[in-house]
Design a protein that fits this description.
Elements (H helix, E strand, L loop, with lengths): L6 H9 L8 H9 L6 H14 L4 H12 L3 H13 L3 H8 L7 E6 L3 H6 L8 E4 L6 H6 L7 E3 L2 H4 L3 E8 L2 E2 L3 E5 L2 H8 L3 E7 L8 H10 L6 E5 L5 E4 L2 E3 L1 H5 L16
Parallel strand pairs: 1-2, 1-4, 2-3, 4-7, 7-9
Antiparallel strand pairs: 5-6, 6-8, 9-10
Helix pairs in contact: 1-2, 1-3, 2-4, 2-5, 3-4, 4-5
């Protein structure tokens, strides 16, 4: 695919990708692996791509894994493979319950993980709720599934019988999660209309506290994201299935590397 394109050109192509590109982290891992033989250049490359996509938790995970590895090229290949093979969607789809006739599943915004989870769940009535940080209309135009999805605001959703609310996570820390801006208010409006709230985070979203704190500091001026407490969620849906948040965040596979603790500016 890349032919004679140089590593620097590949990196520039990655930095130009949209922040909501579902393949961004895997593509970044592939591009960063080309810098493995030059440690100083690898650090610069990681910090450069993160500076363009500060809210992308899986990208921080990729960079941390590569920089901490004795063999960065192998770590890059492993990270890309784990992202491509992320089982979160399959496990989420298998865990969503069979609903009563008038119940719905509500999704904050729309993501590829949720879309893939619903590919074979035509039994579910699904609504997508737009918030400031996530426009489901645009995402639904490029979905893979043929599932019918209604777009409703949070006030209309509050009048429905919601069995589950699915909240996409950009990054997850020990007790808080980075989510699309407007999620907090939407959950407040929905209130008791929801049976359970599940935070959905795929491979690489759960970060150690020191890395997560840097992510939050880096996105302080980003109006498209905000934090919510993990206590607002009943479960966390990830690569190990749907489980308690405390269990998910206790198994962090992201190292803390000094190169990522300094401000990106």
């Amino acid at each position: 695919m890349w032919g004679d394109v140089t590593p620097a050109e590949r990196l520039r192509a990655v930095t130009r990708r949209n922040v909501d590109d579902d393949h961004l982290a895997a593509e970044a891992a592939d591009a960063l692996g080309a810098f493995a033989s030059e440690p100083a250049s690898l650090v610069v490359a990681c910090r450069r791509v993160l500076a363009h996509h500060r809210a992308h938790g899986a990208l921080w995970w990729v960079c941390a894994r590569i920089l901490a590895a004795p063999d960065p090229a192998a770590a890059a290949r492993t990270a890309a493979r784990e992202l491509h093979d992320d089982p979160t969607a399959d496990r989420l789809g298998a865990t969503l319950p069979i609903l009563d006739e008038d119940e719905v599943v509500a999704v904050i915004g729309w993501t590829a993980i949720v879309d893939d989870a619903l590919i074979e769940r035509f039994d579910l009535d699904v609504v997508a709720i737009p918030v400031h940080g996530s426009d489901p209309v645009r995402a639904l135009r490029r979905r893979r599934s043929d599932h019918t999805v209604r777009v409703v605001d949070e006030w209309e959703a509050a009048r429905l019988r919601i069995a589950r609310v699915l909240v996409p996570a950009l990054a997850i820390g020990p007790d808080r999660s980075l989510v699309p801006a407007g999620t907090h208010d939407a959950l407040d409006v929905i209130g008791t209309a929801a049976g359970e709230t599940w935070i959905v985070g795929g491979v690489g979203r759960v970060l150690p506290s020191r890395i997560y704190d840097v992510v939050i500091a880096s996105t302080r001026d980003d109006e498209m994201v905000e934090e919510i407490s993990l206590q607002r969620a009943d479960r966390l849906a990830g690569p190990r299935g749907v489980e308690r948040a405390v269990d998910a965040v206790s198994r962090i596979d992201c190292p803390v590397v000094p190169e990522l603790l300094r401000p990106l500016d």
